[in-house]
Amino acid sequence: MKRFVFGAAALVALSCNAEAAWVGKASYYSGRRTANGAHVGAFTAAHRTLPFGSQVRVTNLTNNRSVVVTINDRGPFRGGRVIDVSTSAAEALGFRSAGLAQVMIEPISVAER
Question: What pTM does this model have?
């Protein structure tokens, strides 16, 4: 039920061109194929509901570093996480060694479904 409510809220906010932002934990991943058949790229990410090709700004709330990533995978599938970013993005955000970071996610462009 949580996934449905979160997904529905995201879809409503994005379809209304409202400034939607999410805050939560980010982790990183590498070395496998993504849900759309591509490889994990330099600045790519996995999100549960955003369409593939969407771009979001991810900001590490601890050090205020931010990067723009392209959604090309589904996930994360561990509780309490809102996004999985590529290893390169985690390095740029300054949390690769820690493994997790508190982040804010802001949509920049949302691809058509």
Answer: 0.77
Structure tokens belonging to residue 62: 């601890």
Instruction: Indicate the SS3 state at residue 62.
Output: coil
Tokens 């809220």 -> residue: 9
CB neighbourhood size of 22 (10 A):
18
CB 89 within 8 A of CB 69: yes
* φ and ψ at residue 4, rounded to 5 degrees: -65, -45
Domains of the chain: 2-109 (2.40.40.10)
- The number of angstroms, rounded, from the C-alpha of 65 to the middle of its chain's C-alpha atoms is 15
82, 63, 78: which is closest to 21 by C-alpha?
Answer: 82
**pLDDT tens, the chain, 113 aa long:** 444 444 444 444 444 444 589 999 999 987 666 665 666 668 999 999 999 999 999 999 999 999 999 998 898 988 889 999 999 999 999 999 999 999 999 999 988 87
